Structure prediction request, 64 residues.
Amino acid sequence: MFDKPGNALLSPGDFVRHAGKPDWGLGQIQSIAGHRITVNFENAGKVVIDGNVIELQPADLPQP
Prediction:
């Protein structure tokens, strides 16, 4: 489904980071429709990512 195989492991609700945009901060996947991944980033807001072009990196939440 994705040209970037790591994106196939992602699901809505997962936390991710955009390797090329570290200043966007932590993001949470809102939806996946085809190769379009909608992510709500803490510093960039809602962004639609083309999952065939950008491979998002899974992120662990910081422990309290």
